[in-house]
Amino acid sequence: xxxxxxxxxxxxxxxxxxxxxxxxxxxxxxxxxxxxxxxxxxxxxxxxxxxxxxxxxxxxxxxxxxxxxxxxxxxxxxxxxxxxxxxxxxxxxxxxxxxxxxxxxxxxxxxxxxxxxxxxxxxxxxxxxxxxxxxxxxxxxxxxxxxxxxxxxxxxxxxxxxxxxxxxxxxxxxxxxxxxxxxxxxxxxxxxxxxxxxxxxxxxxxxxxxxxxxxxxxxxxxxxxxxxxxxxxxxxxxxxxxxxxxxxxxxxxxxxxxxxxxxxxxxxxxxxxxxxxxxxxxxxxxxxxxxxxxxxxxxxxxxxxxxxxxxxxxxxxxxxxxxxxxxxxxxxxxxxx
Amino acid sequence: xxxxxxxxxxxxxxxxxxxxxxxxxxxxxxxxxxxxxxxxxxxxxxxxxxxxxxxxxxxxxxxxxxxxxxxxxxxxxxxxxxxxxxxxxxxxxxxxxxxxxxxxxxxxxxxxxxxxxxxxxxxxxxxxxxxxxxxxxxxxxxxxxxxxxxxxxxxxxxxxxxxxxxxxxxxxxxxxxxxxxxxxxxxxxxxxxxxxxxxxxxxxxxxxxxxxxxxxxxxxxxxxxxxxxxxxxxxxxxxxxxxxxxxxxxxxxxxxxxxxxxxxxxxxxxxxxxxxxxxxxxxxxxxxxxxxxxxxxxxxxxxxxxxxxxxxxxxxxxxxxxxxxxxxx
Lengths: 337, 329
Prior knowledge:
The complex is a heterodimer.
Chain A: H1 2-5, H2 19-44, H3 59-66, E1 74-77, H4 82-87, H5 92-99, E2 123-126, H6 133-147, E3 153-158, H7 165-177, E4 181-187, E5 190-191, E6 194-195, H8 196-199, H9 208-211, E7 216-220, H10 224-241, E8 245-250, H11 270-277, H12 281-292, H13 297-320
Parallel strand pairs in A: 1-2, 1-3, 3-4, 4-8, 7-8
Antiparallel strand pairs in A: 5-6
Helix pairs in contact in A: 2-3, 2-12, 2-13, 3-10, 5-13, 6-7
Chain B: E1 2-5, H1 6-20, E2 24-28, H2 44-48, E3 53-55, H3 60-72, E4 76-80, H4 91-98, H5 101-104, E5 114-118, E6 144-146, H6 151-163, E7 168-172, E8 180-183, E9 197-200, E10 205-208, H7 212-225, E11 231-235, E12 238-240, H8 244-254, E13 257-261, H9 269-281, E14 290-293, H10 303-309, H11 313-323
Parallel strand pairs in B: 2-3, 2-4, 4-5, 5-7, 6-7, 10-11, 10-13, 13-14
Antiparallel strand pairs in B: 1-8, 6-12, 9-11
Helix pairs in contact in B: 1-6, 3-4, 7-11, 8-9
């Protein structure tokens, strides 16, 4: 399943790329893309409720970043987190069942699209109050240092979290205390419908790292290998000398903010969206991998077919899974000692 | 047993639990070098070092979130709010992160955290530093809420809170830190969460009160004893989960209930206690439940106005006499 093909590395060796890694990166990006497409379909059919925020267009960030992590490293995200959860190694069947609100979902159907959690792969959620999970990530990093282990945590958030106070409180604390956290801002240029220019006095988000005296840089978030390089360096710093990093990954969401904003067309032009789609991270990497000989056309097609089958299976699994029993309403409010 | 102050009892609880479990650490503003704005953490930095007694900048949401993240991954933080009024800056972290994490993760990530500090009416601290804060928390499923009135309870309940696997809101009081009482020095002495206590036995009327109001209720009980009224005083100690059984047992014995609340009253703890008693012991009541609450105004600074804002012994005495149909003052 996903774990077997995941690009998540044991020990993270960023230098060089071989066919195995290329296959894994391609597989994970296609898996996320297909998962999101099928989720959108299920949403249109009324099988998924609430809010559904798709990661389509941004896959290179989560996949490139996760490819530098060890399985015992942590990841945490906001509400556009399906991709981060799958990249970290969660079973797509259980992730899909969670979106369907079923008992076999990652959270027994009690979290939903915005609250995927998977302890088995150290994925810490799925948080839907903008900015609120940055202090949590900082706390996980504090815990790593407290226990004296060499894990790291990667924390994903959108450009919309940058004006929140918790972004600034977190960067300050992480730098002040030297904590092993990598903050990855997925700058897709729009916080819902508010463009960067309408929200931030400093639109070069990576520069906030300078204010907090931590390493920081921007990276092309449509280039999975570039993301991988930048994050690998940050993870290395975090692991070896507990230095936090702020990374701004410049990306774009091809769909609207959520399924309730399907076109995303009020606040950006169609031309802009079409232009950005020319830099589809999956197409870019596929072309590059074919040219470099990391993948053959046949390899790529095989991956695409296998992923489609896997996601079809995930949808079937979700549909077959029962709704949570009524007793679940009142369980897990408190952990019983 | 030893006689110690409420402050010393809290300090002892922290020391004992930190010795017992190296996952326990204290984090907050001025908890280390300054030894606590109210000296609850006195001596702890020296004993446990800066890794476990963590001074923070003024960033309540940030350091509360740090505590929650650390708790999600296996540590047991005690977050100090210099005063609980500042917890409003961390309210989102407490309500949306700590309280709901275990539920929305389907039981995967519990949050064993204690958030503690003083709250409630204090002495001329004015509107922003002197208010009853428990009301913001006990409404939220997933939080436990403790208000310890005595030094023994301060110790025993704090230790239970630290050992609990869930988020516990633990609100002390500036006005009680210097109160002295007998406290067990046994490191295994615990007061379980969710257990009320009868502070004074009586037969004519049950008065339910906690923190400073509990002391005023005891004074009122002494006063009306002169008229031959026998008052039972029940201290809930834990507001969430509430020990309704102990409260109802008392009311079924006395057939009358007066509920005291320092806060503003509207939709407050008094409302909830009144509802619990009315719904579950209506047939046992000889009179409607009386509520004595704070005046619905922000806390004024001027001493005379401050006195008028919060229930006092006289108002409690009046309520007891009223419910017992005794004409008094």
